[in-house]
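User: Can you help me understand a structure? I only have the sequence.
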Amino acid sequence: EFVPPLSIAFQLRIRPNHPRAAIVARWDGDQRRGWTVSLEKERVTLDMTHEPSGETLRVRADVPLPAERWMPVAITYDGSGTAAGVGIFYDGKPVSMWTERDNLAR
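Assistant: Let's start by predicting it. Here is the structure, written out as tokens:
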């Protein structure tokens, strides 16, 4: 069973050259699965993990967040277990994404 569908929304303001930060996460310790939203190299990143089986999904926005400006950010996931089911939005507009890992749905 994959992570169920979800939507995450927040506003974020970053410093120039902001390297890395955790934003929000949910983890089920009993089943050792969950997700994390983070900021890496000024780009929003979503990681999903099913730890016992080693299944992972990781997508990152191709577009950096603008510095010193509050930006509404949303992430959607359709529950499919694939990177194609993820959407990242800045200020209500979809941004292109780079898929680093897409083996959640094995």
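Now, to help you interpret it: The chain has a mean pLDDT of 90. The chain is about 0% helix and 55% strand. Let me know which part you'd like to focus on.
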